[in-house]
Amino acid sequence: MKDPLVYSYVIGGVIFVTGLLYAQRQGFIGLHGRGLVRLLVCLGVIGFFFGLQAYLQYAPMKVAPAMPYNGGADEVLNVQGGKTRGTPLDYGIMIGYFVIILIIGTWFGRKKTTTKEFFFGGQRFSWWLIACSLVATTVGSYSFVKYSNMGYAYGLSSSQTYFNDWIWFPLLAFGWLPILYFSRVTTVPEYFERRFDAKVRFGATFCILVYLVGYVGVNLFTMGKVLNALLGWSIPGSALLIAVISTTYVTAGGQTSVIMTDLFQGVMLLVTGGVILFLGIDYVGGFGVFWENLPRDHRLAFANFNEDPKFPSVGIFWQDGIANSAMLYFLNQGIIMRFLAARSLRESRKAALVTVVGLMTVAAVVVAAGGWVAAALVNHGDLPADMKSDQAFYIATDFLARPGIFGLVLAALTAALMSTVDTLITAVAALTVNDVYKRHLRPQATDQQMLKVARISSVSVALIGVALVPVFMNFNSIYEAHGAFTASVTPPLVVTLLLSVFWRRFTAKAALFTLTGGLLAMVLSILYPQIIAPFAHGVPGKLPDDGGFLSGMKVYKYMRACYGISVCAAIGVIVTFLTKPESAERQKGLVWGTVSDALRRYKGSPGSEHGRVRTHGQPLVVSEEPSETRGEGQLPVVALGRSVSERLGVSPGDLLYVSDSRWWLGGLRSAHVVVGDAILADEDRGSIGLHSDVYESIVTKHRKRHTVLIEKLY
């Protein structure tokens, strides 16, 4: 099976249909009502990507003949000898951007006095805020540079990475997100301890920290290369500068700072990438001319199956589509924290859908646009054909951009990096505080002590990331460094998590053996890369001549993911059948089919996901004392007026979401609460009684006479 489109949709389709079967058995999808709507949405997701990629792969297209270079770009081609690209105006815009980000991050990070606020922003944000910030998080500066590089060399197939996310949507939306949201685990390792035991948690903590810290290093290495190419600064020094700026606002406000800065940066990324594409299309004479000047092989959804080891579609499928995408959405602590920051499971699912189908599709175009534009300009005769692919992004944007616009491009690169690094830093802080400090060093730590450790660890991981930059400098390109790193560390974690959630028979010993044995298998594949050959699907593998420390990682760098997933899955299945099953009681709320148990524990009473009721009420302060809390979510208790209670149809123990009625705040002024036993006096029939701490988190001093929005959840 050497057709990459067929290969991707057969294997990816099996995973997708498996997710639909799990969703159907849990009642999330069906042939009637809301279940049918959800089913049609899922089928629409796979139909959209299949139709788009099939058209690119097979449709006949007109191609313009290649023209020789006609001159006119010598100034941007010969930037060397200490000369920088752009003008003082461009660098003024970039510096101004740094200042704006610091102001936004520190402003929205004020008054973060609890770890719940620091790590999850109070779990109150709307889907659109989460989705926009997720795009900014997943699209790092390495994305702009490496995908423009691949876009120039291989065309639209550089988008394959982003167009594989559909594979995981049903398992994510209807399997993992409900368990994640209602179990209220602070970190993924905490989930493993609840599901199994402390040993598995420790193993998962180690593996995830390696992944996250290494990811910080990859991102800082990228920005170092960018500033080195633009300004001639040293790569380590540039990385240190970015680390300092990102850490400043993260340590100030945690997740709220990250979400609000990433919202701003997400918009910057999409707009600036769109500007580059627009300028390129306009320069050559319109979209039709631009499209025809992309060589036909540059318009393929999949460049090749296994012929080119630098970019084989089968390797990209396993490394990015399977291992890295699963790691990103299911295990990346930064993404997990973002999903948990949504105000409800419904909002979390909306964010996942919009991200996977909408914004990531746009992002695929945005990040690779520089390379596509450069390829079209070469074919059109505006740039020379011997231009190096790793310079394509800089040359094309410098060639097209006017003073000021190039500054926006520089700011976008910075935005891309900072929006990824800031999330990774908060993720490492969350793991350090909850899975190391509180779990092993100080179980009785106060919130203030944990906040202090969170901020110290945020600074520490940034410094470690800077120290890792020289390691990644051993690779020829950012794409190789990123691909080799993720393929080496993600398989044990991905397999262990998926089997834990979707296979009830999976045992604690099997989980521990999968993590440790899988990690050992990945190390062996680096020392002896020839063991990957049976899994390589014919992709050539040759040991580099340099024989350096990481030379084994450079061989089969993408197919290592296929090897790792296969070996880890085999370990997990074999050990599971050789050990006793876990008790059903321990699994409640932590495996598929037990979401109702997780919901019951979360709110402190039985509930259902179906149906929403909204009304408005006048907020009142009923006590100056801190509010009583209930359930694992530690949700404050409120009193309702009789009229409000009747309109919502609630009973004591029901969960409510109370917010400022201005939708565009995205949940900044809101809180989850639980209905208490008390009923307000008749004169307050249309009111909601809040303790002062909850009241102040929702109502500003200028809106005390305005009603608040009250929504019944679950």
Describe this entry's structure for a reader.
Helix content is about 60%, strand content about 5%. With about 725 residues, it is of the alpha+beta class. The chain has a 6-stranded mixed beta barrel. Strand 2 and strand 3 form a beta hairpin. It starts with a helix and ends with a strand. Residues about 110-120 have low confidence and may be disordered.
- Alpha plus pi helix count: 25
Q: Considering DSSP H and I runs of 4 or more, what fraction of the residues is helical?
A: 55-70%
- The overall pLDDT average reads 83
Biggest β-sheet: strands ordered side by side in the sheet: 1-6-3-5-4-7
Condensed summary:
The longest helix has 50 residues, at 235-284. By secondary structure, the protein is of the alpha+beta class. It has helices at 4-25, 33-58, 74-77, 88-108, 115-120, 127-138, 141-154, 169-183, 188-195, 198-231, 235-284, 287-292, 313-331, 333-340, 345-380, 392-400, 405-441, 447-472, 478-502, 508-527, 560-577, 584-587, 595-603, 642-648, 692-698; strands at 613-623, 629-630, 635-640, 655-660, 670-679, 687-691, 708-713.
Structural descriptors:
globular; 714 residues; 6% strand; 6-stranded mixed beta barrel
Element layout with pairings:
Layout: H1 4-25, H2 33-58, H3 74-77, H4 88-108, H5 115-120, H6 127-138, H7 141-154, H8 169-183, H9 188-195, H10 198-231, H11 235-284, H12 287-292, H13 313-331, H14 333-340, H15 345-380, H16 392-400, H17 405-441, H18 447-472, H19 478-502, H20 508-527, H21 560-577, H22 584-587, H23 595-603, E1 613-623, E2 629-630, E3 635-640, H24 642-648, E4 655-660, E5 670-679, E6 687-691, H25 692-698, E7 708-713
Parallel strand pairs: 1-6, 3-5
Antiparallel strand pairs: 1-7, 2-3, 3-6, 4-5, 4-7
Helix pairs in contact: 1-2, 1-8, 1-13, 4-11, 4-17, 6-11, 6-14, 6-15, 6-17, 7-15, 7-17, 8-15, 8-23, 9-10, 10-11, 10-17, 10-18, 10-19, 10-20, 11-15, 11-17, 11-18, 13-19, 13-21, 14-17, 15-16, 17-18, 19-20, 19-21, 20-21
